[in-house]
Specification:
6-stranded mixed sheet; about 40% helix; alpha+beta; Nucleotidyltransferase, domain 5; single chain; 12 helices
Length: about 350
């Protein structure tokens, strides 16, 4: 039986059909323990089955002597220090800039270790059979190897030794799968505006910048949208781009975004959120000739940074000079230097 956790390059986790509740609880930061029974009103005497020194909670399974020995062993294999402050904090060990296959491996190591600790607890609690550290390590290693073999992610040559430590064959990137992303310049007098949206903790923002056919910076905008969704921020970015173009007297623009769903509103206006339909309708009747296209996020870096910076402003703001944070990537694109999209 398989469990999918919603990661694009994530394979399957093999587990017993009788324990799907474990994974649901784990994604909510809790393990199925006696702590939950007490929270539901059950009056019980709780004690950890391993150490018999503390009550049984999700957090206790992180620093119980039995669990600590497993976490220390895994920290050595993963070459990192695991954050044991909370269940979900364990996922912070996943490398931000690693390959997709290695990220999958870190995820399954954490999940299978928590699951093994929980199953060892059940064996001792209900069958009175004590689980050994060696048996737990063997189980974790075998399950991680099985899940790692199911990963559809790719890895780098430098990561072969890490994958080999878990008996997982590497999935090499193939050169033909690497996409070169280049900025395409508009034909004069058309101007190009790249837009993007951002959402952090339920708070959304958007941004965009205008350039001419030579790649010259003409201006940019940022806007903090408050509580909203990523899709709303992407749509707002397109609308603000048209409105700011009108304010500056630019009547011929090329809109570019890395959101295919947002760009679909040009062909199907019913996709525009209800609260934005009047603004979208008005923007289309401002006398601006607009064409739109999609670009991969690797080629939309400047707009992405502007969207992230927008969380620090209040309302829509026009930026007349190029922000320092964009200098490096802006001039890379102006010089037609490529970015690369890896599978």
């Amino acid at each position: 039986m398989c469990c999918f956790l919603g990661r694009s390059a994530f394979g399957s986790l093999v587990y017993r059909p009788s324990t799907p509740l474990f994974f649901w609880r784990l994604m909510h930061g809790k393990m199925p323990t006696e702590e939950n029974l007490r929270n539901w009103g059950c009056v019980i005497v709780s004690v950890c089955s391993f150490c018999l020194k503390s009550e049984e909670t999700s957090e206790h399974f992180l620093w119980c002597p039995f669990a600590v020995e497993l976490w220390n062993w895994l920290g050595g294999k993963l070459n990192c220090v695991l954050d044991l402050s909370a269940v979900l904090s364990l996922l912070s060990c996943i490398p931000l800039h690693g390959s997709s296959q290695v990220s999958d491996m870190f995820m399954v190591v954490v999940v299978h270790t928590l699951h093994t600790i929980w199953l060892s607890r059940n064996t001792l609690h209900f069958s009175m059979r004590k689980a050994t550290i060696h048996a737990a390590k063997v189980r974790i290693h075998s399950l991680v190897a099985m899940s790692g073999n199911s990963s559809i992610g790719n890895c780098l040559t430098s990561e072969f030794s890490f994958l080999d430590s878990f008996s997982v064959p590497p999935n090499n990137r193939r050169v033909k799968e690497i996409i070169m992303v280049l900025r395409k310049a508009p034909s004069p007098p058309r101007l190009k505006v790249n837009t993007d949206g951002s959402a952090i903790g339920g708070h959304a923002a958007c941004g965009g910048l205008f350039r001419d056919y030579l790649g010259t910076f003409l201006g940019a905008f940022t806007c903090n949208l408050g509580i909203s969704s990523v899709f709303h921020s992407q749509i707002n970015g397109l609308i603000f781009a048209i409105e700011f173009a009108v304010q500056n007297g630019w009547r011929n623009i090329w809109l570019e975004s890395d959101s295919t769903s947002a760009l679909m509103i040009f062909s199907n206006a019913s996709l525009v959120p209800v609260m934005l339909r009047n603004r979208w309708h008005n923007a289309l009747h401002l006398g601006v000739q607009v064409i739109s296209s999609h670009i991969y996020c690797e080629g939309n870096y400047c707009a992405d940074r502007l969207a992230n910076m927008s969380h620090l402003v209040q309302g829509p703001v026009w930026v007349a000079s190029l922000p320092l944070e964009l200098h490096s990537n802006f001039f890379r694109e102006r010089c037609s230097l490529p970015n690369y999209r890896f599978p």
